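Inverse folding, one chain.
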């Protein structure tokens, strides 16, 4: 019955795969953008991290003063001042406690507020006020307050100011605020009853958004704001502008009902003081437009904005910004990164307006009054005697009041997202420009997820390469804030339970020239003996780096093991030759006596998995030299070298010492060999992927038929001899002769285990893999690329748990292993041989231990 279940799973997977090939699902442009992180670094492999936390929670408001070397942190009921060099440094961190008095807390609780989260003082605004003071606002148990902090002594001023107009009541409400030249700008839905508002709180008079006859903002959830100094060197005498980024209720009628919310960018001019009679104390320069982040040709829109990062470029008009987008529906997790230019936003704001009639929005086709409504005051205005927003004619202001929305959309650079990740919930982004050794500046993207991962990626020619994914916390929790320090070359990560400081890069993790170059990390270069931070070496020219292609520069030397490991096995045994690739993008290539091993049907006698080569029922003619290469970026790097000797049954184990090499290994071309240029050609890759998947589909069809045949025969055989089940070759057992254990596995007693069976020898040893972080255990939440928009409900039958990890490997390594026996498992899909072995070992704990020599194994 279990076998039937297994067969059913095979059918499901097979149908999915064939459907994918036939309908081209994985080959839509969407998958193209869903890149796999090159390496996976689990929490215990994190290097150079410093963790700050205290008794409180919600370290969500960060203010970095890089030149002063201080990181201010606003948390729940506390403000911290930390040393940016080392946020954990003893004696250099200071705290101000700012709690809610008990009486007020009771009031808050009596109003039915949550006693665990809401009735505290969540610090939400923390900015430099003047040379000596910070300005800080907290929710203060639903009665916001603001005050000053003396940064010289790190003490709080005695008096408080009412914060109700500056800080939201609700700690989870979208909010953004900034201090610019002594002016305070904030945007939020402050109160439950109030409508959202973008305002300048200070100095007086307060300027706000208009609420009638047209509401300028509809249930807006703000995620960010940024000042762009467009007045500097402006040829038209332009003003500085403040941009606000948010998601709001969609008021336009669209044919797509799912789009109830839309992402927006809005701006106001810094010199705007409102109109004289019309739009008194209201923005005269408020304009908003839709931010589009969608897949071209597919009506697939990511409408919810989660985070924005502005990269300032001189002149300011050339600045660009990155947005992190998600889907409206919470049950499907998909994230995208889109990039926009301020110039483009400006163009949209200079374009046609929308107008509304009976709550229907259409493009305004009539005459636009002069001077153009919604503009900043420029030289052209001044030439007409209009020196400030108060001089604007009523006709212009009336128009502005009724036309806050632009008709055109702000579209991303290249009309598509830079990156699209399925099953990943991005929350925050920060971007750092790095000048690489090729003289070019690259944008390095740091993207945090809702489950506590950080993706470090580099943007190369409009594409994103994810250098690595880092698991930041032991327990999953969202990344709430990211701040980068240029001078400390650190990134600070705010989270619900603390602040983490991490180096911007950890080049030392790459232990070979090829690893260093394949990573394409603009921070890192190979100096001949180590992968180092390029800033740490004055003579940069001697370093090797290739951010553009990730394959050039390394010397033509053999890396990896030049000594062959020896496996001496009995004929008929199954042998696992381990070859774990650290890179998720590398593909294993096996050579047997100088010939490439291809195909892996049941008859071929071997199968290639993500962590090694499995010889099934070894035969004498399979003796020889097996070499594993890692293929990446068109370069082949030696990864493992084995000499396998298959002995006939008659031979006695003791006669064959481990060191003996019965078969001289044939010469094998050394080291890395660049592949033909055409291989790099995307088209070729595309076509070969189709071919591979098509082939895989065929193979699976055969396997399926075969398995169903076996299920049938097995059931008949059950009445007969149960001992003979191994005859059916679909019933796979692993018999491995292997050796060295890695330390961690040795601690568990399943490291070396085995049993002696009637047929002769059976030893199973999983060890010797390099302790690649990604293979020791499954990451609790590695972002998993999956096929294009399949609703999650489609993975029923218990497949959902295992399918993604296999798919991920398919995406990276294009290998999938089918499990063929073990009736206890519900899924036919397996992560790796190691897993498979571990399961078998787990079941064989009772069997006798067979010791083996530390390095080479034998019998
Ligand atoms: C919060 O309220 C729950 C029940 O409403 C109660 O069990 C818990 O002790 C309260 N916690 C605090 C910190 O007051
Ligand atoms: C900064 O502002 C605070 C609070 O208003 C004030 O007490 C202090 O004197 C100011 N400092 C300077 C240098 O202006
Ligand atoms: C403004 O122009 C001056 C002179 O052309 C130049 O030196 C300066 O760097 C420019 N400033 C910016 C921010 O572009
Ligand atoms: C604008 O400023 C110019 C020069 O500063 C002045 O001559 C003119 O009267 C001002 N116009 C208004 C409407 O205030
Ligand atoms: C504060 O942190 C706790 C977990 O420590 C989390 O449950 C809560 O949602 C956080 N609150 C806010 C406002 O972020
Ligand atoms: C490379 O850098 C490492 C670490 O900084 C150093 O120990 C080594 O001497 C350097 N090698 C060369 C060839 O410069
Ligand atoms: C590697 O070296 C061999 C001979 O030493 C040479 O023929 C081959 O072209 C070299 N390959 C590269 C990529 O330098
Ligand atoms: C593998 O090891 C054998 C024996 O040590 C050696 O002759 C052969 O050159 C090695 N192969 C490679 C590709 O290094």
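Residues assigned per position:
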């Amino acid at each position: 019955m279990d076998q039937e279940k297994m067969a059913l799973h095979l059918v499901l997977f097979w149908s999915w795969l064939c459907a994918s090939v036939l309908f081209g699902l994985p080959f839509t442009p969407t998958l193209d953008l869903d890149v796999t992180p090159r390496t996976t670094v689990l929490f215990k492999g994190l290097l150079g991290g410093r963790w700050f936390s205290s008794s409180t929670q919600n370290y969500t408001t960060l203010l970095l003063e890089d030149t002063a070397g201080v990181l201010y942190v606003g948390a729940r009921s506390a403000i911290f001042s930390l040393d940016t060099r080392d946020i954990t440094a003893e004696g250099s961190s200071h705290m101000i406690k700012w709690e809610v008095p008990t009486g007020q807390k009771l009031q808050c609780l009596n109003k039915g507020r949550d006693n665990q989260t809401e009735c505290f003082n969540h610090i939400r605004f923390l900015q430099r006020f003047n040379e000596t003071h910070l300005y800080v606002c907290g929710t203060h148990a639903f009665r916001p307050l603001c005050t000053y902090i003396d940064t010289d002594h790190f003490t709080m001023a005695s008096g408080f100011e009412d914060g109700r107009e500056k800080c939201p009541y609700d700690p989870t409400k979208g909010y953004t605020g900034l201090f610019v030249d002594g002016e305070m700008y904030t945007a939020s839905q402050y109160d439950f009853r109030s409508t959202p508002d973008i305002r300048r709180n200070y100095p007086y008079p307060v300027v706000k958004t208009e609420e009638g006859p047209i509401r300028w903002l509809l249930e807006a959830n703000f995620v960010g704001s940024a000042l762009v100094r467009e007045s500097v060197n402006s040829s038209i005498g332009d003003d500085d502008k403040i941009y606000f980024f948010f998601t709001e209720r969609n008021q336009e009628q669209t044919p797509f009902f799912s789009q109830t919310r839309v992402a927006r960018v809005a701006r106001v001019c810094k010199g705007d003081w409102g109109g004289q009679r019309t739009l008194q104390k209201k923005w005269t320069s408020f304009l908003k437009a839709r931010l589009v982040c969608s897949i071209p040709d597919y009506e697939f829109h990511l409408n919810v904005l989660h985070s924005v990062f502005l990269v300032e470029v001189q002149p300011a008009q050339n600045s660009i910004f990155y947005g992190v987008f998600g889907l409206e529906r919470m049950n499907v997790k998909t994230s995208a990164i889109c990039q926009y230019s301020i110039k483009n936003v400006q163009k949209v704001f200079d374009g046609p307006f929308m107008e509304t009639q009976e709550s229907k929005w259409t493009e305004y086709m009539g005459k636009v009054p002069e001077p153009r409504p919604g503009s900043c005051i420029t030289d052209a205005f001044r030439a007409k005697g209009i020196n400030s927003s108060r001089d604007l004619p009523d006709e212009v202001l009336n128009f502005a009041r009724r036309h806050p929305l632009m008709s055109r959309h702000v579209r991303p650079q290249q009309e598509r997202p830079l990156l699209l990740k399925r099953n990943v919930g991005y929350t925050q982004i920060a971007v750092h420009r790095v000048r690489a050794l090729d003289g070019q500046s690259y944008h390095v993207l740091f993207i945090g997820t809702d489950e506590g991962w950080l993706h470090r990626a580099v943007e190369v020619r409009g594409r994103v390469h994810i250098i690595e994914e880092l698991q930041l916390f032991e327990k999953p929790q969202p990344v709430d804030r990211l701040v980068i320090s240029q001078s400390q070359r650190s990134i600070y990560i705010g989270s619900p339970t603390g602040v983490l400081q991490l180096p911007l890069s950890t080049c030392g993790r790459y232990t070979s020239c090829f690893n260093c170059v394949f990573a394409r990390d603009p921070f890192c270069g190979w100096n001949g003996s180590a992968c180092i931070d390029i800033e740490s070496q004055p003579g940069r020219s001697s370093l090797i780096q290739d951010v553009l292609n990730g394959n050039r520069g390394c010397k033509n030397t053999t890396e990896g093991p030049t000594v062959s490991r020896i496996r001496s096995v009995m004929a008929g045994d199954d042998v696992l030759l381990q070859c774990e690739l650290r890179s998720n993008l590398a593909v294993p290539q096996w050579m047997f006596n100088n010939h490439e091993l291809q195909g892996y049907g049941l008859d071929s006698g071997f199968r290639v998995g993500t962590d090694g080569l499995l010889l099934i029922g070894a035969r004498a003619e399979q003796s020889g030299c097996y070499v594993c290469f890692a293929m990446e970026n068109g370069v082949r790097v030696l990864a493992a070298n084995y000499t396998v000797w298959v002995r006939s049954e008659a031979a006695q184990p003791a006669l064959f010492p481990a060191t003996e090499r019965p078969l001289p290994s044939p010469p094998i071309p050394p080291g890395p060999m660049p592949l033909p240029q055409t291989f790099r050609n995307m088209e070729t890759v595309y076509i070969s992927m189709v071919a591979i998947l098509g082939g895989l589909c065929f193979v699976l069809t055969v396997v399926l038929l075969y398995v169903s045949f076996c299920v049938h025969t097995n059931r008949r055989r059950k009445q007969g001899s149960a001992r003979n089940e191994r005859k059916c070759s679909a019933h796979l057992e692993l018999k491995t002769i292997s050796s060295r254990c890695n330390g961690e596995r040795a601690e568990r007693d399943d490291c070396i285990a085995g049993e002696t069976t009637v047929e002769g020898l059976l030893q199973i040893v999983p060890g010797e893999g390099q302790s690649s972080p990604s293979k020791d255990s499954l990451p609790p939440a590695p972002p998993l690329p999956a096929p294009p928009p399949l609703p999650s409900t489609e993975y029923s039958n218990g497949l959902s748990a295992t399918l993604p990890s296999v798919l991920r490997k398919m995406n990276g390594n294009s290998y999938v292993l089918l499990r063929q026996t073990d009736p206890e498992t519900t899924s036919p899909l397996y992560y790796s041989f190691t897993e498979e072995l571990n399961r078998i070992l787990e079941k064989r704990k009772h069997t006798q231990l067979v010791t083996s020599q530390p390095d080479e194994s034998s019998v």
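Residues 129-133, 148 surround 2-acetamido-2-deoxy-beta-D-glucopyranose (ligand 2) (CB under 6 Å). DSSP finds 13 helices and 47 strands in the chain.
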